[in-house]
Amino acid sequence: MNLRFLETFLWVAKLRSFSTAAEKLHTTQAAVSNRIATLERELGIRLFERDPRTVRLTPQGHTALKRAEEIVRLTSEFRECVGDGARLRGQITIGTVDTIVYAWLPLLIEQMGNRYPSVSLDLNVDTSLNIARQLLEGTVDLGILMGPVVGADIRNLEICRFECEWFAATKLAIPAEPLELVDLVRFPILAYSKGSQPHHAIQRLLEAAGIATDEARIYNTNSIATMIRLLCDGIGMTTLPPAVVREPLAAGLIRRVAVNARIPPLHFHAAYADRPGNPIPAAIAGMAAEIAADFQAFADRML
Fold first, then answer.
1. Which end of the chain lies in a sparser environment, N or C, as judged by fewer CB atoms within 10 Å?
2. Which SS3 state, helix, strand or coil, does residue 243 take?
């Protein structure tokens, strides 16, 4: 029995689509159909009920799914035990957020290349909400995001926590003494995208300070690069992890501002689907945890 056919069976069962499984496996829909048909002939059962819109497991397919998962998982564990990272081949799709890109993502990619030279990478930078959805849909293998992500077979590993501070352009005439939040509403507040955890945190701060929505201007963006550019140009103030603004901070373009209101720390998770036959997401999640810890210790010393 061909292991690749079992892996194809697992992906079709997960995605409920021959065409989507073909895209995930980087092959054709015809190849996927042939693999499933061959597997059904070998087993002497029908694995899927097919209709124009979707496919669904038959009762025999449900029974076969559990056994196939076990076989693929054991095979993967065997390869990991007797082999090394250099022998692993394939592709992984990682979804992450701008904050991680500006912090330690390059270190993770470098280490991935050293340990898994035959694994290619698709990188998707998006919001945590979108990455969580893509992870649940199976279009992302590993998400590094503000989590956790709740879903069947999803594993979450908390990898780092970033404290946030208020920053403003050095050229802005802002007093050095601690300010109240109400003192800042004459400036726009540069915030993460709507719906994000930091955006909601800022809204709660404003409500707690008795500041009406129409009294404060909040400029939302899902791009840290945009936020930093606007910050350096004096367009507004923002609250961000110091690690992601270390370069403009070191260059003297921005400075810390003491404000008697802080948003909660940003908690980041590595989330992945615990699927048999694909050990790479779990391995890279472990790498991410180690790199994040080392980076945090370095950033704390430097900042």
1. N
2. helix
